[in-house]
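User: Okay, second chain of the day. Same drill as before: sequence in, structure tokens out.
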Amino acid sequence: MSNPFLSPSPLPYGLPPFEAITEDHYAEAFDAGLAEKAAETKRIAESTEPATFRNTVVALETSGAILDRVSAVFFTFAAAHSTPGIQALQSDIASRLSELDDDIHLNAPLYARIKDAVSTVPDDAESQRLFSEYLDAFTRSGANLDDDGQTRLRQINGQLSTLSTHYQQRLLSDTNAAALVVESEEELDGLTPDSIASAAAAASDAGHDGKFLLPLVLPTSQPALPQLHNRNTRRRLHTASVSRGASASAESILAIGAEIAELRAERASLFGCKSHAEYATDNQTAPSLEAIHAMTDALALAAVRNAEYEASELSSAAGHDLEPWDWSYYSEQVRVDKYDVDLAALRPYFELERVIHDGIFHAANLLYGVTFQERTDLVGYHPGVRVWEVFNADGSGLGLFLGDYYTRPTKSGGAWMNSFVHQSRLLENRPVVINNLNISRPADGEPTLLTLAEVTTAFHEFGHALHGLFSAVEYPSLSGTAVPRDFVEYPSQVNEMWMLWPEVVQNYAKHHITGEVLPQEVIDRIEAASTWGEGFATTEYLGAALLDLAWHELEPGQSVEDPLDFERDALEKAGVLVSLIPPRYRTGYFKHIFAGGYAAGYYSYIWSEVLDADTVEWFKSNGGATRANGERFRELLLSRGNSQDPLESFRQFRGRDAEMQPLLVRRGLA
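Assistant: Same drill. Structure tokens below.
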């Protein structure tokens, strides 16, 4: 059988032919793809024709088709279905891709041709944007460094690609190993029957027949903590979560993370920057690293103040000294007492199929007129992956949406969106995107009931999917979510607002047995209680964001002997060392920054939320979930990708720059 990556997919929208792909195909496809990309780049660099935008920049933009196809599938597998075969290949592939990237961006003749093409760039804004992005990418990748600087840069990039892969793989292994095994059902008192059945099934799958298993999600807070009555079980679950990666081994995740941060600091110095944080934030929408600190530091003061008030309320409710594993448990009790909102009691109203079809898809139809048809004739990379074809209001095909919702031992924690095919008018590509979540699979025959937080995550990730699906740009590298890191979370956060919007929530939040619609008075109480716990939530988030900045404000040559001491000192200096509130992610399981694209960028969630909160106010003031509003948001913002300055897209949509006040009100910090 021929290798399916070596030619375009014959399936609708270019969906990868997963049924035909085996692990043996990857090595051959990467060999061919890397060679093809190198040869095409060489031809562009060595061309004797005068350099033009078309024969240089656009030629680069359209090169490497095989590599694009195999990379999209391989790295989705590496995160969502990481088998031993994938893991064995991943380090080598990451290193070779890093080497090729350096070969391209440090190619002096190629860089010279790009600069020589400046006078031939068309006048349209998107072509001008593409040209400036290419120049910036070459400059930020070391094209202007001297020979010694480029040599050292290559060495660092190779080391970082290997270390990041090791971090990701060790984290998956440690997270699976840290899953909590519980001997008796009594120790799970407080969990719903379906949650207990799910824990029993997970234990059986892991070889612990007759016991119960609580897998860990990626963040510090675990979803079972608010319900577990047994304090010792809560303690064990919390301890398992925060202890991930805390081994004293020389090859521990902590040591890998520290080495990554130290190498990034050295790399930043090659570009004349004081730290990786200064280098990484230089091309974001935030005006400066100082502006980021000004915002986060001010929010931290207010958040910790609110958290201290919440702690006093919780201590009174508990009748004893609080420990970190007590917080979410008693916070739910106070929420019930003060606002009559029992989050655990909401789960029967949030059945996965209804959340998807009658909630997420329904909201997209109200706003944008799009419809969804499940394509059971098209398959994903795992039996649990589902495929929908997405249609515009006029019936034309828009793209494909894939959903991979359940957790499994081969899947990394957290939730994310990927693209298999990036939209591009130039390549005549329509988008193929996927959402990955980590919902516990119920016992056979039982419904999948979500927590309110999981529903929020599902709407959030679909906001990323819409950003990819609605892209309408010429060039693939400017498509969809290819925007600055501190802007990319903005559209996804906006999409969360529809979760409790009247026309949406009344359509999907129905009791899975009785069909009763979630009463409006309950929704009103949920919204009234929305600021309860924001002291904790904001402090927890800022702890992670400021820890990220601390790791990436290391000075060149500075080494960290004890990562846990460094972590504690960084949190104390930032004013967010609160014993009862660990950061959302600690050094030992901070995948976003050590094995993802968020290095010195985790602040972006709160930075994007300024835009999000202001946008929510616009929708509320202009009639809510109407087609006119949705089309405006789609046309002026979601469709633009990075084809122009994203903040300019925001200004065109909003009519002005964003204001901070809506965020402060939302988080109870006003």
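The longest strand covers residues 397-406.

User: Thanks, on to the next one.
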